[in-house]
User: Which sequence fits this backbone?
């Protein structure tokens, strides 16, 4: 039976029926095709694009133009998976008007179904309400928020003590009330994500947040072993593609140098 297009109510239903939601990142057409074939529920064009594809040291330099360019490519490869685009730093936390315009570009120009944005301070909560009122679905992102990691003391687990845990719980409730359809929790204790997941009606998606969330997300380049600079503790490497690619490239070089490639079967004959 052909898979039907995943919608936001479908995600809510999955939470109600205790069915785990799968979400992975993609930044280009071929990866989107692979994730679509694997029937991944949500494809995220994360601003992790900056680290794993563009070679920046953080997600901060990522621009709207870069995100739009990659979201368009991913949209051409996906069919039924829900497509979410990450709003890059300073594209959403300036004014509500600017945020609606930028979020609208992801939907209208790039073909995304929804946007994701980090944080939940009072300004962001008010901005989320405006974007949702404009008809654009918003996914929240709490815990370790990489765009503001410096303020959080670096890439560290968040919400470990009672005060910090309470603050994350309150932010999550505020995002749900503001109209978010789902929230990503990054690097928080599993007991906290479990407690929040039970409290919220909307689905929670964890990355380094334990089993208690309604779904799991990873950066695809991490799980495939395609990004060697840094592997967080929460990543499970399902493959080591960097090594395999390096071996293939070395093989190509050796065969060309030795005159073994191209062989007869790769050549064209004149009439
Ligand atoms: O940018 C990204 O890939 C993300 C995931 C880590 C959730 O935000």
Assistant:
């Amino acid at each position: 039976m052909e898979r039907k297009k995943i919608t936001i109510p479908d995600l809510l239903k999955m939470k109600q029926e205790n069915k785990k939601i799968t979400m992975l990142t993609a930044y280009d057409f071929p990866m989107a095709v692979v994730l679509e074939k694997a029937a991944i529920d949500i494809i995220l064009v994360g601003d992790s694009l900056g680290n794993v594809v563009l070679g920046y040291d953080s997600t901060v330099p990522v621009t709207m133009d870069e995100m739009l360019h990659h979201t368009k490519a991913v949209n051409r490869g996906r069919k039924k998976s829900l497509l979410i685009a990450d709003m890059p730093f300073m594209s959403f936390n300036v004014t509500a008007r600017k945020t609606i315009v930028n979020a609208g570009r992801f939907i209208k120009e790039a073909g995304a179904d929804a946007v994701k944005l980090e944080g939940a301070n009072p300004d962001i909560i008010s901005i989320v309400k405006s974007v949702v009122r404009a008809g654009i679905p918003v996914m929240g992102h709490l815990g370790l928020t990489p765009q503001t990691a410096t303020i959080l003391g670096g890439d560290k687990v968040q919400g470990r003590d009672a005060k910090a845990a309470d603050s994350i719980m309150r932010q999550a409730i505020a995002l749900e009330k503001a109209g978010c359809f789902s929230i990503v929790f990054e690097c928080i204790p599993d007991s906290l994500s479990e407690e929040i997941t039970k409290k919220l009606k909307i689905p929670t998606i964890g990355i380094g947040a334990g089993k208690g969330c309604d779904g799991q997300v990873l950066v695809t380049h991490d799980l495939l072993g395609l990004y060697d600079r840094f592997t967080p503790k929460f990543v499970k490497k399902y493959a080591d593609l960097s090594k395999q690619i390096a071996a293939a490239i070395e093989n190509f070089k050796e065969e060309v140098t030795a005159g073994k490639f191209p062989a007869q079967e790769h050549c064209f004959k004149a009439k």
